[in-house]
Amino acid sequence: MQTCHIHIYLFSLPALFPFQRRHIDMSVCGGREEYDVVVVGGGPAGCTTARFSALRGAKTLILEEHASLGNPVQCAGLVSKKALEESGIREKWRCVASEVKGVVAYSPFNTEIRIPYENAVVIHRAIFDRLLAESAVRAGAEIQTHAKVVSLRRERGFSTLKFATPAGFREIRAKVVVGADGVCSVVARSAGLNEEHKILSCVQAECAYEHERLAEVFVGRKIAPGFFAWSVPAGECVSRVGLCVDPEVSSPFLFSHFFHRAERPALALERSFQASRRPQPKRRRRP
After folding, report:
1. Could you tell me the pTM of the whole model?
2. What's the structural domain count of the chain?
3. In this predicted model, what pLDDT tens digit does every residue of 255-269 receive, in sequence order?
4. Quick one: which of 57, 59, 82, 153 has the most CB atoms within 10 Å?
């Protein structure tokens, strides 16, 4: 079980890097390594940004706080075939878990809306992320894992990043810093870019489930108060079943009840929600 937070940023990559393709020698300023671009976060956005940056000739570094890229997985993995094609990775077939034939949406009144759609796939995010990282490295980017950025400050046209490693703290300088470190971004906070927003908590499990290669969406206050639940195919008779709710209108016990059910998500979530809202006293056995 894991909690994940979803936040999406859209931007134009080529306009960010006016560098000409060139070789840049390693430079050290005051004992600190210097880069043209430092990308904080080694997910799809970070690795793709680093690849384009390196292709334009910028000396580029990715800082990833975890031991390996792609873990922990925090995504259902449902993407369009076009997105997979535009990712630029080689051997795309390696990261495809399942084809998708359509979507079924269930209303709170159990009404079904079926939409045929065959332009999407479900991917293995861990493999996908690593293939993106390989593309970034082939383009010339460097990757530092076990590197958790703790602060960032701007001085004399450069940004100085301080990050923690197993060997202690290090500092590097960069002309451009890209914050691809998620909803709780240290980069955004250090730059004063944080805005008030609501964070929704999600959980997901991969389990045995008959899906007919259809993605399913469940809505309703009794099922997923404040957002929705889902099921996406991840292989033969295997699905990723998840739940995302608004914590302000849902029970704190909803997630734990959800993972103790083995029925279809709609029924499991409805019963879990009702049980968490209206706990029933234990009945005594009659002698």
Report:
1. 0.76
2. 2
3. 766 666 534 444 444
4. 59
